[in-house]
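Sequence only, no structure available. Ideas?
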Amino acid sequence: MYKVAALYKFSKILDPVKIQNEIRLKFEHLSIYGTLLVGEEGLNGTISASTEEKLSSALSFIRSKKGFDDLDIKYSFSEKKPFIRLKVKLKKEIVTIGDESIDPTNIVGKYIEPKDWNKLIEKEDTIIIDTRNNYEYSIGTFKDSLNPKTTKFSEFPKWIKKQRFTSKEKKFKNIAMFCTGGIRCEKASSLMKKEGFENVYHLKGGILKYLESIPETESKWEGECFVFDDRVSVKHDLSEGTYDMCHGCRMPITDKDKESEKYIRGVACPNCFHKTTEEQKSRYMSRQKQVDLAKKRNQKHIGPKDEVFN
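Reply:
I predicted one. C-alpha cells follow.
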C-alpha cells in the first residue's frame, strides 16, 4: 500500500533553484516518487512513498522551509504504485492561469472549511463554480455547480469575462469555488477579487479534503474525483475509482468506452479517435508494445508524462 500526499502552498520563494535542488536531493534519499513544481509563488505537487515514515519525513522537510510550515496537504492511498519516477521542476507559475497580475500571495478569497461547505452551497444567493477542466467535471462534481468547460486552467479568466456578471451579482452573490486539492480555486479566487467580486469563497483543501472530512451520508458530492496519477479517479472513501485512462488523450474512460470500436488500448478512445492522425496512432501503438514488453519483464515502462493539477 502506498500513501499519497497532494500538497501546495502559495508563498514567496526568493531562490527557487536552491529550493528545487534541496528538495530533489532529500526526496531521492527517501525514495519519494511523484511530481513537485517549484516557483517564485510557491510549491505544488503530488508525491507518494511506500511507507508512512518516508512520506512524513519528506513533508517535514518541506515544512521546515520558510513560509511552508502550514503546507496544505490531502492524503489518500493506492494499492499500486501511483508514480514511476520523481520530478522536481521549476515553473514560472505553480498552476498556470496566464495572468501575472494575479497574485494569491497578496489577495485571495476566504477559505471555507469542508464542514461549512454544504451550508454555503445550499444558500440561494450562492453561485457554485467548478474551476477544474471539463473532463474532470464529467465524472463527478457538486450538484448545481457551473462547468466552465475549459480544457486547461488558463482558459478560466476568459470564461469569467464571457459570463458578464452584473455589478449587483459581484456585490451581493456568494461565489463558492472548488477544485481537486484547493490550488486552482485559490488562484481563481484571486482573479475574482481582481474582477470586483466581493464575496468570494474557496473550499480549503479542495474536493479531496472534503471527501476525507465529510461522511458520505452527508455529502453533496456526486460521482468520482479525477486525480492526476495512475489511479485516474477516487471514490468518496478515497479508494481507487472505476475509471481507466486513455493514454492517447489522457481522458478518463469507462468499461463501456472500451467496448466501442473506436477504442484501441493505449492508443485511442471514443473521445480522441478522430482527433489523432494515423501517424500518431502508429506511434502510440509502438509505445503500447514497449509497455507490454516491459510488463512481461516485470519492469515499469516510463510511459506518458506525469501531470500535476491539484
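DSSP finds ten helices and 15 strands in the chain.
Hope that gets you unstuck.
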